[in-house]
Amino acid sequence: IGKPVTCSLTIYNDFESLINNIIKWIFYLALIIAPLMILLGAFYILTAAGDTSRTTKGKTIITWALIGLAVILTAKAFISIITSVLK
Known about the structure:
Blueprint: H1 15-46, H2 52-86
């Protein structure tokens, strides 16, 4: 009657490759978002014009962006170490 409907998830051979691909996309997304958040925090600081609340908000944004970036990089390193030990 018509063509069979295929799911885009069928390109993965197993569940592990699907999870690895999802992790890879989240990692790359975080690598894009973190510098943008740092730039946003810098923008808040540069446009504060003496307003200490905006300066504090900018510093907070930068701090959390760096913490998030460190967590993502540590998680990626941890995954690489675990997979190399298990193989």
